[in-house]
Amino acid sequence: MTTQINSKYLENYAKAYSETVCERFFTDRQFISGQDIVGLTSSVQVNFFVIKHLFELWQKELQKLKSNPYFDYRDISVHEALTQFMNVLSRRIRVEKGNFQPLLEEAVKRAVELATDPVSYYQSEIDQAPAKQINEYLRENKKYYKWHAQLINFLIDKAGFGQEASDYKKAIAANYQAVKDQLESVNLLLATLGDVKAFDLDAYLQNDSQTEAEAVAQSPKTEESASFFENLEEEEVKEAPQAKVETTPEPIASTPKSPSPSASGSIQVTQVRARFSAESYKGMKGIIGELSESLAINQRFMFRKELFEGNDDLLTHALKSLDACDSLEDAIELINHRYLPELGWEPNSEPVDEFLSLVYRRFLD
């Protein structure tokens, strides 16, 4: 059985996605800034691929200046002045809608390719690196890789500066085989796109027997002495509220999985009601507002680490999806069908227990 990529579907999807985002963002704005882009959508990877593309354009502009044959760009004072100028320029990102939409379309395509086929995507990144500078290229671009980053990060500063591109590609493929069971679910990654437009994985991945196909699987700190691209935080993305696209989350267009038959089974609504109606929790008494707005910093940190594989993108989307539910029953059903099987939650664990307590209070009558 062979899987074929429906590139036409991806092209149409990326266009529709970018049109929707741009129409909403540019309703009352003429330009978008770098900080706006970092928090533009619920998909952190899409946002950072836009920034990555701008970084590439920024580097090309720098090389174009240095190629001028009439000036000595090796002079230390010229080099320092040029570096300062380019850094200031990078912190003044200002893109109009007509120029921004193609960047967003390309970012969506890259994100889907990375989610569904990380080996091919990262091997293509090796092809983009300058000869004999693969290690430097990967280190420089590491901050932009938000999905399946463990396939590439382990190579940085470890493979050696003299390795050929073919050696890096073989190492990526071998590492995928070793860690594929630990990678984020392709369904959960693509579900983060659903806040704007649901992605139909079955329409994108097609096999020759027409059965269901499965994929193989941070705000910048402004410092006047550094570039915008250097200051992108790698560990956590703080969204820019004024730039976010607020919509009701849509589930990814694929058949939900049944809860995994773990020893503890699925979560029962009656047990959740009985468990939390009889107890009070310090700092969590009474009805709370939307989950996406109510988490304390320590709770967000714990849930991201213990329940969402360290992925803030997945946590944010989960909270919004739960907020969109009409009742506690709907919320528990969503948890049972999506997060228990996809992320391997243990229903009786302490992190799940605390998460459920918030969900219960979110829908408390």
What is the strand and helix layout of this fold?
Elements: E1 3-5, H1 7-25, E2 31-32, H2 34-38, H3 44-66, H4 76-90, E3 95-96, H5 97-116, H6 118-128, H7 134-141, H8 150-153, H9 165-179, H10 186-191, H11 201-204, E4 205-207, H12 269-277, H13 291-294, H14 297-306, H15 312-323, H16 328-343, H17 350-362
Helix pairs in contact: 1-5, 3-5, 5-6, 6-9
List keywords for this structure.
mainly alpha; 53% helix; globular; 365 residues; two-stranded antiparallel ribbon; 17 helices; single chain; 4 strands
Cα separation of the termini: 51 Å
Give me the Rg, rounded.
Answer: 22 Å
- Sheet-strand content, in percent, reads under 5%
List the secondary-structure elements in sequence, H or E: EHEHHHEHHHHHHHEHHHHHH
Helix content percent band: 40-55%
- Average of pLDDT: 78
Low-confidence stretches: 208-223, 234-264, 280-286
